[in-house]
């Protein structure tokens, strides 16, 4: 009867092959790839476009700030721009707060 017990232990389940051991790693790499292409890459592209916009600002450009203020740039400094938002009304705004560049003539229509 003792001879049957070692034989039963020797019939253990199938041993995991190399493909089954790599599967969790491949799934993890797939998730990292999806995360990069759906979240990180578009965000980096948008940031780069905004930095290009901010670096090309010049006097006379009509812009909208993140707060929704529409104005014409009268002076560009290193970190601030001066916006004319009305007749003789000027405010200073940080450059990175400029949301978008508007087409010329937008202020006349507003």
Primary descriptors:
110 residues, 5-stranded antiparallel sheet, 3 helices, rod-shaped
Helix content: 40-55%
Please give the number of β-strands: 5
> What profile does the largest beta sheet have?
5 strands, antiparallel
Inertia-based shape? rod-shaped
Query: Helical stretch count?
Result: 3
- In spatial order, strands of the major sheet run 4-3-2-1-5
Distance between the termini: 98 Å
CATH fold label of the domain at 57-109:
SH3 type barrels
Strand content: 25-35%
Class inferred from helices and paired strands: alpha+beta
Stretches where pLDDT falls below 50 for ≥5 residues?
Answer: none
Q: Roughly how many Å is the radius of gyration?
A: 31 Å
- The helix/strand order is HHEEEEEH
Report the top-level CATH class of the domain at 57-109: Mainly Beta
CATH architecture of the domain at 57-109: Roll
The residue-averaged pLDDT reads: 86
Description of the molecule:
This protein has 110 residues and is α+β, with helices and mostly antiparallel strands. It has a domain at 57-109: SH3 type barrels, CATH 2.30.30. It is built from 3 helices and 5 strands. It has helices spanning 4-10, 18-55, 106-109, and strands spanning 62-65, 70-76, 80-86, 89-94, 98-102. Strands 4-3-2-1-5 form a 5-stranded antiparallel beta sheet. A hairpin with a 4-residue loop joins strand 1 (62-65) and strand 2. 5% of the residues are buried.
């Amino acid at each position: 009867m003792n001879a049957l017990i070692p034989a039963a232990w020797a019939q253990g389940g199938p041993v995991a092959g190399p493909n089954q051991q790599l599967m969790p790693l491949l799934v993890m790499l797939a998730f990292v790839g999806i995360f990069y292409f759906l979240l990180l890459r578009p965000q980096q592209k948008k940031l780069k476009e905004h930095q290009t916009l901010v670096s090309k600002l010049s006097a006379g450009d009509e812009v909208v700030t993140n707060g929704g203020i529409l104005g014409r740039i009268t002076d560009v400094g290193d970190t601030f721009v001066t916006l004319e938002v009305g007749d003789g009304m000027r405010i200073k705004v940080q450059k990175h707060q400029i949301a978008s560049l508007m087409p010329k003539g937008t202020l006349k229509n507003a």
